[in-house]
Amino acid sequence: LCKFVGAMCQYHGAAKIVKPKMDQLKVAEAKLAKAMGELAAAEAALNKVLAEVAELDAELGVAQGKMNALKESAAAMQRQMDAANKLLLGLSGENARWTEDSRNFAIKRKRLVGDVSCVCAFVVYCGAFNSEFRERLYGLFQADTQKRGVPSHAKIEQVSFLVDQGTIGEWALEGLPSDELSIQNAIMVTQSSRYSLMVDPQGQANRWIKNREKHRISQNPAMCVTTLTAKSLKDQLEFTLGEGLCLVIENVENDVDPMLDPVLDKAIIKKGKNLYINVSDQNMDYKEKFTLYLTSRLPNPHFSPELSAKCTVIDFTVTMKGLEQQLLGRLISMEQKSLEDTLTALEEDVTNNTKSLQLLDKQLLDRLSNSTGNLLEDTELIEVLANTKAKAKEVEGKLAEADERKIEINEKREQFRPVATRGS
Question: In this predicted structure, what is the pLDDT of residue 92?
Answer without folding.
Answer: 66
